[in-house]
Amino acid sequence: MAPPSARAANAWVIAQATRDPYVILIAIYIFAPYYVTRVVGDPVLGQTLVAAANKWGGWLVMLGAPLLGASIDRIGPRKPWFAVVVMALVLLIASLWFTPPGGGGLPGGAVVAILAAITALFAFHEMLHNALLLPAAGMAGAARASGRALAGGNAGDHPTTFSAHLGGLAFQARAERLAFTADGIAGPDRHDAHRVAGHLDQMLAADPGQPVGRHGQSF
Fold first, then answer.
1. Reduced 3-state DSSP string for the chain
2. How confident is the model at residue 75 (pLDDT cuts 50, 70, 90)?
3. Burial of 167 by CB count in 10 Å (0-12 exposed, 13-18 middle, 19+ buried)?
């Protein structure tokens, strides 16, 4: 097992700071309202689907988290499991791009399943990430690393939200210059500022600063 180090502690901080914007970009302010109002088009049905995703995600957490928590100290190195969770999150978040306004993309059941799986994987990410705190920062540095990670996540929320809107506007401006229609890849009526939030969060989730230890050593 690698000893605690500043490099490992910094990687632990970055992992949380790049994970937390998901809550703002996808779960609360950008993607979820866009999906309800622009993809589904029926506020009641849309909110029902989002609530169903949260419900089933909660059930998955209820069933899986105790098992993961009970075995987390017995499964050996945690980083391979952590990497699997991160890659699954990246793929699922990226798939949210295929939800164009007015439907025609992923069916509602698929979006519910994807959001439920993301909810569960987000919780598993938190558990594995927390289990890496002491190996990464040590007892003496745990409080400082935890505080920095929380501050980093909060500090990153506003820039990532702003970047999501800029990215969407860039897609729309390019579409207008190329005379794309609403049936093209992008366009002024396709709400790319909302859809791009998933890709932005995908890039954050895949951040190379995830806890990896020193020279590939496992903890």
1. CCCCCHHHHHHHHHHHHHHCHHHHHHHHCCHHHHHHHHHHCCHHHHHHHHHHHHHHHHHHHHHHHHHHHHHCCCCCCCHHHHHHHHHHHHHHHHHCCCCCCCCCCCCHHHHHHHHHHHHHHHHHHHHHHHHCHHHHHHHHHHHHHHHHHHHHHHHHHHHHHHHHHHHHHHHHHHHHHCCCCCCCCCCCCCCHHHHHHHHHHHHHHCCCCCCCCCCCCCC
2. confident
3. middle
Does 90 score more than 80 pLDDT? yes
Cα gap 6→59, rounded to integer Å: 37
Binned at pLDDT 50, 70 and 90, residue 109 comes out as very high
Q: What pLDDT digit, counting tens, does each position of 179-218 carry?
A: 444 444 444 445 555 555 554 444 455 554 455 444 344 4
Rounded Cα gap, residues 58 and 89, in angstroms:
16
Q: Residue 107: what pLDDT? A: 93
> Each residue of 6-16: b (16+ CB within 10 Å) or e?
eebbbbbbbbb
Question: Mind listing the domains of the chain with CATH numbers?
Answer: 6-205 (1.20.1250.20)
